[in-house]
User: What shape does this take?
Amino acid sequence: MVASAIGLSIVSFLAVIIASGVGVTGERFSQPPWPTIIVLPVIGLPVGVIVLVALLIVSGLRRGREARDARD
Assistant: This one.
């Protein structure tokens, strides 16, 4: 889930950069599907980071619990 959210955001970001480079103007960016492509990184990157942090916390808690159980 983390990889797909961040990956899709990066692909969208690159699509906007490439489209700007080949001459897509501001007026064309207001037509579909560009508004969605422009908004995806704004939503996808923070969601990906939040999910990644949650994954690290859960993994750390699980490892700590397993280590504590192994000592006992």
Remarks:
- The chain has three helices and no strands.
- The first helix runs from residue 2 to 21.
- The chain has a mean pLDDT of 93.
- Residues 25 and 66 are 56 Å apart (CA to CA).
